[in-house]
Amino acid sequence: MNLDSTPPFWLRNAMVQSTLGSRGKGGPVACRADLTLAYLFRAYCPQEGRDVRLLGTYDLQPSGDSHERRLAILIHGWEGSASSAYVLRMARELYDHGWDVFRLNLRDHGPTHHLNEGLFNGSLIDEVYSVCIQAVQFWQQEVQQRNPRVIVAGFSMGGNFAIRIAGSHSVLKNKIPGLTHCYAISPAVHPEKTTALLDSHPVLSHYFLRKWFESLKLKEKLFPDIYDFGRLSEAKSVMSLTDKVVRQYSHYQDASHYFQSYTIEPQHAGKINIPLSILTAADDPIIAPDELRALAMHPDVNLTVTQYGGHNGFFLNGLKRPIYLDFVEH
Q1: CA 20 to 30 Å from 327, out of 9, 156, 250, 274?
Q2: Structural domain boundaries enclosing 246
């Protein structure tokens, strides 16, 4: 499928595309779904040596449907949520094509800061993978589906998680039931480079610095005996704030040590044995396509690079329909 096309001239700016990606509601999925169900899952976090809780939302088809049920697991990007516009767009598209949908909130995203003492960080693949397994198992019981068909799709940092989920599923004995395909849209596979590029764009740096610090202050308010982020307000970049947070509140030595914990190298892709499709844009302001081309050397990895699209944008045919809706199988 050839997804690439040239958008109108007023949509060719990468920052415009990136901004549009997170704007709008994407459609009220809950109003369309026969049943919308929020569910809290518990998973073990080896980094903390304790159980943690993650919240997700199901959008389920009418119970009387006799067709084979399918489940799509959607994972948002950093400082997004299960209700981010791009997640809801994808959820509505899949739901309208007969899929059940599970929209996951990563730790400390959406309305979940109170659920766990520990801070979110990008290395927490174990809890996310465990919850994906549980989400499928619960759905199987709910809809009485013995032979599930499941896909995972993630955006930005969620795309990074989607790639690692494909890797974990390929090498671990504990599989995600029925997983057939993983999709990564604008995945941040080299987070240190991504953060440096983000900080090189003043608007993006200011936006994420503000969003993250608001998240940290909420965490501090909920757990005042554990966190004091007041002194960190002087940080002038996401890289600087990352370094300060990980030095003070994690086992990582510094930001580089932390970023390496969820950097995806070509040798990691070599272990994947289920289909993985990656979508990125050549003009993405925070991700270089070359980082992803190395992953696509492996037979189960398919990479699509569009000329335009920015980061999580991909409004190549006007404002109504981003092309990632056609990228993920229906």
Answers
A1: 9
A2: 192-263
